[in-house]
Design a protein that fits this description.
The complex is a heterodimer. By secondary structure, chain A is mainly α. Helices cover about 75% and strands about 0% of the residues of chain A. Chain A has helices at about 1-60, 75-85, 85-115, 125-135, 140-150, 155-165, 175-205, 210-215, 220-235, 235-250, 255-260, 270-280, 285-310. Chain B is α+β, with helices and mostly antiparallel strands. Chain B folds into two domains: about 35-155 and about 320-380, 3-Layer(aba) Sandwich (D-Maltodextrin-Binding Protein, domain 2); about 155-315 and about 390-435, D-Maltodextrin-Binding Protein, domain 2, CATH 3.40.190. In chain B, a hairpin with a 2-residue loop joins strand 4 and strand 5 (about 145). Classes of the chains: A mainly alpha, B alpha+beta.
């Protein structure tokens, strides 16, 4: 009897549970439909302006598409040609080196600045604004400024360095590979650190103050709190800032186009510059599209790896 | 990141082009009636001009619209580096403009793809055809067919400072007529000291160097690229005037007869040192005359760019050709506008707008008296030339171009033979790559 009652309650409970599940399922479906409806405009725009052009770019890469005139399907010939395209391969190696050089300094400088400005002490807002200003002004204007300031005999860089007896005032920065790359790296670190600072600072300000208070009560040092509280809880912000930094460096164009024009020779030609030259100077849009597809795959892989190792579970 | 944006936009535009291509006409047929074509046209003409040569375009369109009530020209300026890609996209989309002021070196790229209207019978009917710039017309020619007509000239000349010539004991009315004289005059001016330089060049501007150096080869009767399209070869290794010229540039650089900033001069402030009165000789663009300060202008004079060995001169036939894209909706209106621009009344306005007339018969004594600088350029136009190739940008204008690598090796590194070798092999392989 008891068993019967028990099983009856269980059955009743099961029906009620099933009912709740059905209700929740219906609510989930409604939420899903509402979510889809709300994101549909964005998805549509992404489809029209990102996915469709990307797919069409892949199609162009399988043709001998010139700037004007007829074209025909050539299969994977463009991709096969890339394996022996020394200029393109050199541009990839150069871009990888450049990305490797600037990424860590941008992060370290950005993190240090974020630590400095994360509190709301007097003057913080002004300091944040000043550090973020180069990012607002933009790399194009700053690259033109760099061209002026790096001129032999008349530029500020040579004036200061020659006064310090570190360099001749006739040094031609922009036409020597090493010097030009150094100057561009310094410029980009100055430009991009502000964005990293803002991203990390926003993440830091989201960490509850109680955690630091508890750590202090437990006798934790500043460094210990930074290492055991800030860094773990900042993992997603760090991942985001590094991904933005690496992708931005890999797609670098403006600074090289303006300051060195890829020279001397093609020694400072970034991947995107190489694609640009192929499409519009060599008028080979098919080959340039193949180069672009390779670039998309490489950047996608790098981003995936970064996500995998940096994002974690976010706890 | 901006480049990714450009690619997306370009890809979207090209996608639209594919979708719309069925709607657009791509034929190159010529309207039948020559007399009616370009006469009393009506409607709207969409005119695309380059920002680099916007002076005449803006002024002439304004004037044309004032005087033509039934035909309106709408001007669209294409930004630097984007003029060919914008036109190509429009042609692929089947909605090209009616007339384009196209950089003349880019015309073969379009004409050889049947993207332009055949204008042969209309050009042949022009009473002043023989006075049109031969170099500009050549770039619009395939065989005996014309796919464009000269629009404006942007020419290279040899600027010199008469005051510095006098101070150096040189005759200010005797500009150099060969490279040996350039070298000796520059050396004498250099000795003046006080920050004065004998010579100057835009040493990090590939296009500028071609603009002022190639004419001296042409004046000597040699081109660096020879042969018909599709079977072109590089003429570097056995090019004696080229070797002399590169060796002279090396001497100018090594002996510090040019400002050290020349090595990084990318063209943005090209000529500024000459305009400031600090340079004796500058092979440059006629257009810098517009920037002369009135107080210093009397010191300056120009002469034709001499051949390396002398006895002749030439100029780079830079500037634009008018072309009518195949499938243009109002070609008759476009031709009416073109004919109006080529009339003397409009041509004589060019010097004040920063360019040179495209007709050699505009050079009259009264024109020369009113425009002494431009008269020199216009005189040289009759002997002007170009490198007729589909690979001009790739060979000369790209930063990593074989032309510029050769210049760097020969002039900055002082290794002439390595430069010549680099130039011969690099230009030849580029011609093959571009199938020129």
């Amino acid at each position: 009897m008891a068993a019967t009652e028990s099983s009856g309650r269980a059955a009743a409970g099961g029906r009620a549970g099933a009912g709740r599940l059905r209700q929740r399922g219906a609510a989930d479906r409604r939420d899903a439909r509402a979510g889809l409806a709300l994101t549909a405009p964005s998805l549509l725009l992404v489809g029209i302006f990102a996915l469709f052009p990307l797919g069409f770019g892949v199609y162009i890469s399988l043709t001998n598409w010139p700037l004007v005139g007829p074209y025909h399907f050539i299969g994977l010939s463009n991709y096969q040609g890339l394996i022996h395209n020394s200029v393109f391969l050199q541009s990839i190696v150069f871009t990888l080196k450049y990305t490797g050089i600037v990424t860590i300094p941008i992060f370290v400088v950005g993190y240090s600045l974020a630590v400095f400005v994360r509190s709301n002490r007097k003057g913080s807002t002004l300091f944040r604004t000043l550090i973020f200003l180069p990012y607002i002004v933009g790399l194009v204007a700053e690259s033109f400024m760099a061209v002026v300031e790096l001129q032999p005999t008349s530029g500020t860089a040579n004036f200061v360095l020659s006064k310090l007896h570190l360099m001749s005032d006739t040094t031609a920065w922009t036409v020597h590979t090493g010097l030009a790359t150094t100057a561009i790296c310094i410029l980009v670190i100055w430009f991009a650190s502000g964005l990293t600072m803002m991203l990390l600072m926003a993440g830091m300000q989201g960490i509850p103050a109680d955690l630091y208070e508890s750590a202090r009560v437990d006798g934790a040092s500043w460094w210990s709190a930074e290492r055991r509280i800030t860094l773990p809880l900042l993992r997603r912000s760090i991942a985001l800032s590094l991904i933005i930094s690496v992708v931005g460096s890999f797609l670098a164009f403006n600074q090289f186009f303006i300051i060195t024009d890829g020279g001397p020779g093609t020694s400072t030609e970034s991947v995107v510059m190489s694609i640009f030259q192929t499409a519009f100077a060599d008028t080979d849009v098919g080959l340039a599209s193949a180069m672009s597809v390779v670039l998309v795959i490489v950047v996608g892989l790098i981003t995936f790896i970064q996500f995998h190792y940096l994002q974690g579970d976010g706890d | 990141m901006r480049r990714a944006g450009y690619l997306s936009i370009a890809a979207a535009a090209l996608a639209a082009a594919l979708a719309l291509s069925a709607c657009g006409s791509s034929g190159t047929s010529t309207p039948t009636s020559t007399k009616a074509f370009g006469v009393d046209a009506t409607g709207v003409v969409h005119f695309w001009a380059r920002q680099a040569t916007d002076g005449p375009a803006i002024a002439l369109v304004k004037e044309f619209n004032k005087t033509h009530k039934n035909l309106k020209v709408i001007l669209h300026l294409t930004p630097p580096n984007d003029d060919t890609s914008q036109l190509a996209t429009a042609i692929r989309a089947g909605s090209p403009p009616d007339v384009v002021g196209l950089n003349d070196i880019d015309v073969p790229t379009f004409s050889h793809e049947n993207a332009l209207m055949n204008l042969t019978k209309y050009v042949n009917a022009l009473p002043y055809k023989s006075a049109l710039s031969p170099g500009h017309l050549r770039l619009a020619t395939i065989g005996s067919q014309y796919y464009g007509v000269p629009y404006l000239a942007d020419l290279s000349v040899l600027w010199y400072n008469k005051k510095l010539f006098s101070e150096a004991g040189l005759n200010p009315n005797d500009p150099p007529t060969n490279y040996a004289q350039i070298m000796s005059d520059a050396a004498k001016i250099q000795k003046l000291g006080h920050g004065i330089y004998g010579f100057s060049f835009a040493g990090d501007c590939q296009g500028c160097l071609g603009f002022v150096m190639l004419p001296s080869l042409w004046a000597d009767g040699v081109h660096m690229i020879s042969g018909p399209l599709g079977n072109q070869t590089a003429n570097v290794a056995s090019n004696a005037p080229l070797k002399t010229m590169l060796a002279d540039y090396r001497t100018l650089w090594a002996d510090k007869m040019v400002p050290v900033n020349d090595q990084t001069q990318n063209g943005l402030t090209w000529g500024a040192d000459f305009e400031a009165g600090k340079v004796g000789i500058l092979p440059g663009d006629y257009g810098i005359a517009a920037a002369f300060k009135p107080s210093l202008a009397p010191d300056f004079a120009d002469a034709p760019l001499p051949g390396v060995t002398g006895d002749s001169y030439s100029t780079f036939d830079g500037g634009d050709d008018f072309v009518i894209p195949a499938g243009a909706s109002n070609p008759s209106g476009a031709w009416e506008f073109i004919k109006w621009v080529l009339e003397p009344a409009q041509q004589v306005q060019y010097p004040s707008l920063g360019d040179t007339p495209i007709r050699t018969d505009i050079l009259t004594p009264s024109f020369a008296a009113k425009n002494p600088y431009d008269a020199v350029a216009l005189k040289a136009l009759a002997k002007g030339s170009v490198e007729y190739t589909l690979a001009y940008d790739a060979v000369y204008n790209e930063p990593g171009s074989p032309w510029f690598k050769m210049f760097e090796d020969a002039v900055y590194s002082g290794n002439l033979s390595a430069g010549i070798q680099e130039g011969q092999s690099g230009i030849q392989s580029t011609l093959q790559q571009v199938k020129s």
